[in-house]
Every structure is written in C-alpha cells, then in structure tokens.
Design a protein that fits this description.
Elements lengths: L6 E5 L1 E5 L2 E5 L2 H10 L3 E5 L8 H7 L2 E4 L24 H16 L4 E4 L1 H9 L4 E2 L19 H4 L4 E5 L4 H8 L7 E3 L6 E2 L6 E7 L4 E6 L6 E4 L11 H21 L1
Parallel strand pairs: 1-4, 1-5, 5-6, 6-13
Antiparallel strand pairs: 2-3, 7-10, 8-9, 8-11, 11-12, 12-13
Helix pairs in contact: 3-4
C-alpha cells in the first residue's frame, strides 16, 4: 500500500474550443505533478454545482490550483469591474474559491500557482491588482507577446525569498542559493491586499508578492506567482518545491490508509 502514489487533483478551466465546451488543464502542470512531485494527477472539472467538495477533499492527497489565461472576476473581492476583453472563467471561480477554503480547513496539502495563488488570496479575503504594469514603480510582469513558449517562460527577474520562510528553508536544505533566485514571469495581475492568514514568502525586486503560505498550516500550503511547473525537473528550486509538495501528499496518503 505504501508504494501507491498519492492522488493530486488539479483544477481545470472551462473553455470553449471551436464552439465546444471543454474542461482543460495545461500539460505542464500534469507533467510536473507526475514527474517532479511523484504523484498521480487527476483533473478536477469546473463543475461546482455537481461537485461534492467534502467528498473530493476526503478522496485526494493534495490539491494543485493551476494557472490560467483567465482572471478571477473582481466581484469576488470587491474590485472594479474588469475592462472589456478581460478573459474570465466564472465556472472555475465558482469551483476553486470554495474548494480552496475547504482544502485549507482540512489541512490538505495545497499548491497554488499563478492564477491559483491569486485565487488563494481572494478565497481567504484578500484583493488583487488588475493591471500591475500600470502601477508606479512596478515592472511589466507579463510574458512577451507573440514569442515561442520557451521565451515566454524563460527566467525574467529575481525574487527575494524571506529568510524565515518555508521556501527559503527548502532551498537551504537542498543546498541552493536561496537569496539569489531568478524566476519566470507571465502574469498581469497580482496581490494587492494580502488575505488574513497568509504570510509573504517571496517578493520580486519591484515589491510584487511572488509567493505566500498559509500561516497556520501544519504541512504544505503554498502559493507561487511564477510558473515552477514549467520544466519543473530542470530547475533546482522548482524541483525542490514540487518534491516537498509530493512528500506532503505522501504523508497525507499514509494517514488515509
């Protein structure tokens, strides 16, 4: 039984492709969960009305809240109405926000990436900046448009890991230079007011919050704004964080046996 791989549910986006509705998860998230975390990925559809969240939480060993081209609708955090043309996904919002709250309450291993970190912040009572690049003193954190995938996800700017944070501790344990990491950047939005119960783990050189953790979590409950899932096994910090997430999921699996 102990040889079984833990089950990690990944949140899906609801998208129309050629006029047909799909529930989709990027391959890079699935690959990172399988190869870097050593877990079995399970796609969780954006079907809030048909999901028994309590049963989902009880049946899995970890939750990965994925990134997405869409944004959290501002009504969920009291923000101004989104500009015309902003991609939204109300089905995903309706699924992920209560799911995140339930996962935190159940102390389920939780890894939230990009939009996922923003959802984590909103779910717990925080707010978002909708256009980071328009704020004085902030860099443009969006990926370069029209470029190949490898260019859009190439390392783009440094981050400072908090010395007393969980990610810095993981980096030190792995022998990494925790004070000098460079990460990719592919987001237009970011955290404005930090949610109660979250603690900052990392910041960009312009002050944008790049990682958080749930303060009272007994295990792994981290959000990261950059994309560690991209070629996760090739970047030491990414593989270290995914390995820690996988270890937390295996601990959860053992407790369920």
């Amino acid at each position: 039984m102990l040889a079984k791989r833990p089950i990690v549910a990944l949140t899906a986006c609801r998208r129309d492709i050629d006029g047909v509705p799909f529930h989709a998860v990027g391959d890079k998230y699935l690959t990172a969960v399988a190869d870097a975390a050593g877990a079995m990925p399970l796609l969780l559809p954006a079907m809030s009305e048909d999901l028994d969240i309590g049963r989902v939480i009880a049946s899995i060993d970890g939750l990965l809240v994925t990134g997405s081209p869409s944004n959290v609708e501002p009504r969920h955090y009291g923000g101004e109405t989104a500009r015309s043309g902003t991609l939204a996904d109300p089905a995903r919002d309706a699924t992920t926000l209560p799911l995140i709250r339930a996962a935190v309450a159940a102390r389920l291993p939780l890894f939230a990436i990009c939009r996922g970190m923003q959802e984590l912040n909103v779910a717990l009572g925080g707010t978002l900046h909708q256009h980071l690049h328009e704020l004085p003193g902030r860099r443009d954190h969006r990926a370069p448009a029209g470029q190949p995938f490898a260019v859009r996800y190439a390392p783009a700017h440094p981050v400072a890991l908090r010395r007393d944070g969980q990610i810095a501790a993981l980096a030190r344990a792995a022998g990494l230079d925790w004070g000098g990491q460079t990460v990719n950047s592919a987001h237009a939005q970011g955290i404005d007011r930090l949610a109660p119960g979250l603690v900052v783990e990392a910041e960009a050189d312009d002050g944008v919050i790049e990682a958080v953790r749930v303060a009272d979590a007994t295990g792994f409950a981290i959000g990261i704004q950059w994309h560690p899932e991209y070629r996760a096994t090739e970047y030491p910090l990414s593989s270290t964080v995914f390995a820690a997430f996988g270890a937390a999921c295996r601990t959860r699996l053992i407790s369920r046996l």
